[in-house]
Every structure is written in C-alpha cells, then in structure tokens.
Amino acid sequence: MTLTRRFAGLGLGFICLLTGTGLAWGQQPVAPASGHDHAAHQQLARIDGQITLDEHAAHRAALATPGYSVSTQLYTVPDVALVDESGASVSLRSLLDSGQPVAVNFIFTTCTTICPVMTSIFTQMRHQLGESGTGMRLVSISIDPEYDRPGKLKQYAERFGVGPGWTFLTGDGADIAQVLQSFDALRGSKMNHRPLTLLKRPRSPDWIRIDGLANGEELAQEVTARLLN
Prior knowledge:
Radius of gyration: 17 Å
Strand order of the largest sheet: 1-4-11-10-7-8-9-5-6
CATH class: Alpha Beta
Strand content: 15-25%
CATH topology: Glutaredoxin
Order of helices and strands: EEEHEEEHEHEHEHEEH
Helix content: 25-40%
C-alpha cells in the first residue's frame, strides 16, 4: 500500500544554473554524450546568442517543479559491496541496516544542477536537526561510478564540508545499476535522474520515499516526524 501526499512551497535559497557535459553511467564507458544519445531529455537553449543542446534540461525541470511527494515503499537492499570515499569496502546492506536512522540520496560529482542542491539540502537538514540528528546516518551514492572514484568523492565531500556520519559510495557499474533498480531510481541515464531521498527508521521494513526537492527545513521536519519520534 502506498500513501502519497503532495507538498508545495519549495523554499530553496539558490539554484545552480551552470551546464556541464553528460557522461553515461552504469556499465557504459565514460565519454562525452552526443546529441543523439540524449535526444530524449535535451532541449534547445540559447546561450550567448547561439542555439545549443541543453543536456541539463531534465535537471532544470526538476529544479523548477515546486513541492514533493511522500510515499511508503518496501525495498530489498541488494547484498553488494561498494566503496566509500576513503577507498574502504562497504556492505551496503549492513550500512543501511546498522540500527541508525538513515537518509539516502543519489548524486554525481560533475553534476552542476540538482546534485549540489541535494547535497546542500542534506547539510541544511543536519543543521536544522541539531543534536536530535546526531545519530543519523547519511548516505550519498554516485550514479557515475566510472568517474566518481573514491578520490573524486572525497574531494566532493570536502567541498561541502561534510562531517562524520555521512558516507559517499561508488562501486562497480553493475552493482550501482542493481542498487538503482532495487530502489526504483534507475532512469536510463544520469542526465535523466530526478531528485530522490529515501528515509528508513531502524528495524523497520518500510522506506519513506521523497520524490522532488524538499528544502533543508522541510526534510528535517520529515525526518523528525518519521524517523526520530
């Protein structure tokens, strides 16, 4: 049974409007994306008087869409070994079932639109939670594992001032694809991925799925209501 509610009034204080190059993810090689490969999600944009393909059109659309939805889902976490930002092997199933409240999102380090926004929202959420969120585990999983090796993830985490209790993961392309499929987060290309946050209470089989961009205060309220009370 799925319980879904809509929330309006997205209150982000910033939106990153830079563009970048699209790289394939999963088991595909790292290479600049062509217009043919991404025709489904590219749109024409005028930049400096020139007409060009906007590879981040899907991401911009997500940023421009107010509100978010919440549903309760049952997911089976795949028994895969991923790699964290320090290069250590991590059992995803053990990490997500460690007896701590957990929040998961999906990012890639070369993203210049929704990924830095989502990472900043996790940072803002932590600030909003204060002491009550001390024991909470945050997990960010890269959807570009070929490029986002541990060193890249470490640099990304440092750029956002990430502290203890927040793990960044990469791994084999096939394992990352399995993780995305297991959480219904696979969208064909990293350029098509949408904002998604997954929350889980310790020892509960249920996952709280948040589709869309809740700001830091809203996400802290969801965590407080659904995980900490």
